[in-house]
Amino acid sequence: MNFVIPPRPQASLPVAGSDKHFPVNRVYCVGRNYAEHAREMGHDPDREPPFFFQKNPHNLDTSGEFPYPVKSQDVHWEIEMMAALKSGGKDIAEADALNHVFGYGIALDMTRRDLQGEAKKMGRPWEIGKAFDRSAPCTSLVPATETGHLAKGAIWLDVNGDRKQDGDLAQMIWSIPEQIAYLSSHFELHAGDVILTGTPAGVSACKRGDKFTGHVDGLPDLNVTVI
Ligand code: MN
Known about the structure:
Blueprint: E1 12-14, E2 21-23, E3 27-30, H1 35-40, E4 52-55, E5 60-61, E6 65-66, E7 75-76, E8 79-85, H2 94-97, E9 101-108, E10 111-112, H3 113-121, H4 127-130, E11 136-137, E12 142-143, H5 144-147, E13 154-159, E14 162-168, H6 176-186, E15 194-196, E16 211-216, E17 222-226
Parallel strand pairs: 3-15, 5-11, 6-17
Antiparallel strand pairs: 1-2, 3-4, 7-10, 8-9, 8-15, 9-12, 13-14, 13-16, 16-17
This protein binds manganese (II) ion (MN).
């Protein structure tokens, strides 16, 4: 291919225990997927169908550092499990959905809550609150051939050693197969698509110097420092 400018390198995630990388195509994030978190954000979890927003592939960041972003005084943590797809399609059946999952990891859906709140109030898109540079600190991916498919087990976040979020994957309102089926009914999914699967209750504001430890049973922990 004869590009007129040098293309940016492919966004990717390391694969744990190997020298291989997973090429990232798109990053979908489900909103309000744990009932207690929906309630803490002021919503009734029983009445709402799933909804998704996107981050950018290059927002994923395995450096272990999260630079406090500009233009915000209220940057929240959200611990989430991520699922990465090795194949895609349209109208994927729930029963077939997990056959498309390459593996799993842990991510933080970092959020400029003040800017997201303004966007919500004005009926504007959420990108300014959600899709900023390095907004998704995360781990390497672990292949599902090693972990099995993860549908239950603890998901928690410690901030400076204090447990701030504490849930179980089984509390997801929309399971991962349901999320894949729903997304694929609206978009053709592709190999390389990554889904952030929602956060349990306990989101709050971080500050420079905070140390995050994120955990999902069956995966290596996520360790991130806010700089
Ligand atoms: Mn989130």
